[in-house]
Amino acid sequence: MRNISLLLIALSFAACSGNSQNNNLSKPTNNMNTKDKVVKTEEEWKKILSPEQYEVLRQKGTERPFTGKYYKHTENGIYVCAACGAELFRSDKKFDAGCGWPSFSDVVDSSKVVYTKDFSAGMIRTEITCAKCGGHLGHVFDDGPTPTGLRYCINSVSIDFKK
Predict the structure, then answer these.
(1) Please, how many CA atoms are within 13 Å of residue 79, restricted to the half-sphere of its CB?
(2) For residue range 68-77, what is the model confidence (pLDDT) as tens digits?
């Protein structure tokens, strides 16, 4: 059963990775002031986060595709970091990319996320993490809708929703 789950995740990564190598992504500078950052020990994070949240947000894991609570979510509001509450995505920027994870075409503010090249899983991607707490959110690809052309592919467990 574990092998089937791993195979499904690998296939979903391939489907969600698009045709791009992310070479053309514009990576905004992170302007967040260090005094605004949330710094905790791993033991503190383990007490605050659920085991699944800890696995994804702190250990750069991923939830199984098509299972997250926000994948088909359509209410109006704002999505915030599940670890620190930083405002990350607006519902009007959410779209169905068919990849199994919530997808957004833009962030609330480019200073809210940090972009890092990710060479794991046998592909080149751009990881995004929360600028305030360093939590792993997902990846961004350059095959999204206009006007940004970006697709932020986010783990539901990494975000919460506020109406």
Answers:
(1) 28
(2) 999 999 999 9
The reply to whether 153 belongs to the active site is yes
How many structural domains does the chain have? 1
* The three-state (H, E, C) secondary structure of 65-78, written as one string: CCCCCCCCCCCCCE
Query: Would you say residue 6 has pLDDT above 70?
Result: no
**Alpha-carbon torsion angle 72, 73, 76, 82, nearest 10:** -130
Neighbours of 117 (CB within 10 A): 11
Q: Residue 132 sits in a domain of what CATH number?
A: 2.170.150.20
At 111-120, the pLDDT tens digits run 999 999 999 8
On whether the CB atoms of residues 52 and 63 are closer than 8 A, the answer is yes
Q: Alpha-carbon dihedral of residues 69, 75, 79, 83, nearest 10 degrees? A: -40
Point out the catalytic residue in the list 81, 99, 133, 153.
153
* Whole-structure pTM value: 0.82
- Determine contact, residues 89/76, Cβ cutoff 8 Å: no
